[in-house]
Specification:
Blueprint (H helix, E strand, L loop, with lengths): L6 H5 L25 H23 L3 H13 L1 H10 L8 H42 L5 H4 L5 H11 L3 H46 L1 H16 L1 H39 L4 H12 L5 H14 L3 H31 L3 H15 L3 H21 L6
Helix pairs in contact: 3-8, 5-8, 9-10, 10-11, 10-12, 10-13, 10-15, 11-12, 12-13, 14-15
């Protein structure tokens, strides 16, 4: 037998092997390993849902920050678009988004700095009051002696139980050992967490400003492909709801805070700027402002100023009545085409479910539901 290797065998060690396809052979329809198109579609749906759930689980600590960034981007969208038309973006488009992001940060941080400075100024007086309470007890408030019923009994009980040094020392000792330490730890952890989320919101807001047009196109395209023309209408309605809610809650709340802050100043309420800011924040929630101007009135009553307290209460109810019954329904309902009852239910239910985010998420969800209901019951008439 001839042992001489053939030419092909001699060349084999020095030649690259012939490329062979690594793809598995196609399985004809009907064979055991073949999946029908409906089964493949179901598998893809399961895979997409599983990946979406995994992504939400990974991002869930930062979801509130992302939602806040989206809300701020939507609320400031018209103003940013106007600035963008005046100064069209060039190059990497960094300057204008950075300026808007820094402005948003200052809007939120400046009041906190002012409050911190005010608290530092008042710290000395607070420490003096604490030392006085520790040595001489808690003095009887003047308002107890002016009560129409039970004033003398309440003053006598206060003097017997709280106005001697032992009561003040014991009360402060309890506050120092049990409440103050735990409260400071919890407050410190919450401040750090809120600061981190706020910083993440600013980063996300910067990228939303910079890439806002692309993100908007992608969202509208996805809504149209997933849900058809109705999906795009729902998305636009929710955006309009956020605009209306910002105008009706934030701007009107700030207006209430300014007006009532002026009333606090002329009525002689201590720290009118601080109470005016608290009124503005509380006024963003329906029926929240009366709590703050009620506290201001009680402070005046405790100081013996009954007439100014009545002025504060009357002015507060007048301002909030006009804002809640005329201004807000026109701003929110006119933009979202929602009856004010549904706006109110969306706000209150949203705050109960999502906290402050619910101020904007609640009306947006209600606006989408009402739009779908109108299209379902009225058909083409609701789209006109």
């Amino acid at each position: 037998m001839d042992k001489t290797p053939r030419a092909a065998d001699r060349a084999a060690p020095f030649q690259a092997p012939v490329a062979q396809s690594s793809a598995p052979p196609a399985i004809p329809p009907g064979e055991p390993g073949h999946f029908s198109p409906p089964a493949q579609g179901a598998a893809r749906t399961v895979l997409v849902l599983a990946l979406a759930a995994l992504g939400l689980w990974v991002l869930h600590p930062f979801l509130p920050a992302l939602v806040w960034a989206v809300i701020l981007a939507i609320a400031l969208g018209p103003l940013y678009a106007r600035a963008e038309r005046r100064r069209p973006p060039k190059g990497h488009n960094i300057v204008l988004p950075a300026l808007f992001t820094v402005a948003v940060a200052l809007v939120f941080l400046a009041p906190l700095v002012v409050l911190g400075v005010q608290a530092a100024r008042e710290a000395h007086d607070v420490m003096e009051l604490v030392r006085s309470m520790e040595h001489s007890g808690i003095p009887v408030p003047e308002v107890l002696g002016k009560l129409p019923f039970g004033g003398s009994q309440a003053s006598a009980w206060w003097a017997q139980n709280l106005s001697h040094p032992d009561a003040g020392s014991e009360l402060l000792h309890r506050l120092d050992n049990s409440t103050a330490i735990g409260l400071s730890r919890t407050l410190g952890a919450q401040i750090v967490r809120r600061a981190v989320l706020f910083g993440f919101s600013l980063v996300a807001l910067f990228f939303l400003f910079r890439d806002g047009h692309a993100v908007t196109r992608q969202v509208l395209t996805a809504s149209s492909r997933l849900f058809g023309p109705r999906g795009e209408r729902v998305a636009r309605q929710m955006v309009a709801s956020v605009h209306g809610t910002v105008d009706g809650l934030v701007l009107v709340g700030l207006g209430e805070g300014v007006l009532l802050g002026i009333v606090y100043y002329f009525a002689g309420v201590p720290h009118p700027v601080l109470l005016g800011a608290a009124t503005a924040v509380a006024a963003m929630i329906p029926f929240g402002a009366p709590l703050v101007f009620g506290i201001a009135a009680l402070i005046l009553v405790a100081n013996g100023a009954v007439v100014p307290a009545l002025v504060v209460v009357v002015a507060g109810f007048v301002v909030t009545f006009i804002a809640d019954h005329f201004v807000r329904p026109a701003l929110i309902g006119g933009t979202t085409r929602l009856p004010f009852l549904w706006v109110l239910l969306g706000i209150l239910g949203g705050v109960e479910s999502f906290g402050l985010l619910g101020l904007f998420l609640g009306p947006a969800v209600m606006a989408a539901l009402i739009l779908l209901w109108r299209e379902f019951t009225q058909g083409e008439e609701a789209r006109a």
